[in-house]
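One chain shown below:
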Amino acid sequence: MSIDNPGDLEPTVPQQPLSTREIDMALRELKGWNRQEGGLRLRLRRPSFSEAIALVNAVAEIAEETSHHPDIDIRYRNVILFLTTHEVGGVTELDIDLARRINEIV
């Protein structure tokens, strides 16, 4: 994608928020994730600060690939990831898909 060439932008599919039932069903397969305040939350602890940062960098790579970015909180060895689709004010398939991809690397 390029600012100079807006034709490079991929069309986006309008997302609808998932129902509580749909979210709960998805959470069954998303180890460690839980529903919180209109989104999905995962708290991870790493052996060291540098490993926590490495995890964040790996998540950032996935976020860039998917053009969907989590809120990230780093506190020493603890990393908290929060997923929501801000445009619709809730959890969408984008969040579920990103959570699945993140779980593949944690």
In short: Residues 49-66 form the longest helix (18 residues). Residues 16-103 form a domain with the Gyrase A; domain 2 fold (CATH 3.30.1360.20). Residues 1-9 have pLDDT under 50 and may be disordered. Helices lie at 20-27, 49-66, 93-103.
